[in-house]
Amino acid sequence: MPSTKECLALVGRRNPSRQAVKWARQIAEVADENGITGASGGAMGCDRLAQQAFTAAGAPFFEVLASGIQFARSEVALSARPPDEPFSPMAAHERNLLLYALGPTVILEANYMQGGTWAGATQALRARLGPIGIMPAPKDSDGAQAHRALVNLGVNSLESAHEVCAMKERAPLQPRFAL
Q1: DSSP label at residue 115
Q2: Could you list the mean pLDDT of each consecutive 10-residue stretch along the chain, which spans 179 residues?
Q3: pLDDT digits over 136-161, tens only?
Q4: Among 94, 145, 147, which Cα is nearest to 124's?
Q5: Looking at domain 6-169, which of 3.40.50.450, 3.40.50.300, 3.20.20.70, 1.10.287.70 is its CATH number?
Q6: Domain residues of the chain, as ranges?
């Protein structure tokens, strides 16, 4: 396991925009400068983008898998599943909550009211895991609609990669919807 004391999870949808690619790279560079270890779920899209960005920045990184460890793509991975167990949607929901529980979580992009990123964020808000931040998405996109909705539910809107390091100092989550 990487030796840094702080962890930052990056999550997001399976079809990231060019803007999400830019955010992932910038966040990984800031995390590396501040001795923060990256984590993600190993899924297609933003999860793999996070792994690539942290690796390119030279920052420590690990995966939290929704399958057995034999499916790991990074050098360091953990899983609560038997080594050869394939992916399952239930395991993905459990994995998402583990990622949000690690420490600050940044959503690179989400789909509005659908998919694992949306489900994980709303579950984490209900469980008061966090803090959670979301990066801006391209205007007039499904990601922008998801951004607005998640901010309205209590996710922190982030405007720069440098704000990520200050997330741990933010107040505990107070969801803006009935639990």
Answers
A1: H
A2: 73 93 96 94 95 96 94 90 93 92 91 94 91 90 92 93 79 48
A3: 988 888 899 999 999 999 999 999 99
A4: 94
A5: 3.40.50.450
A6: 6-169
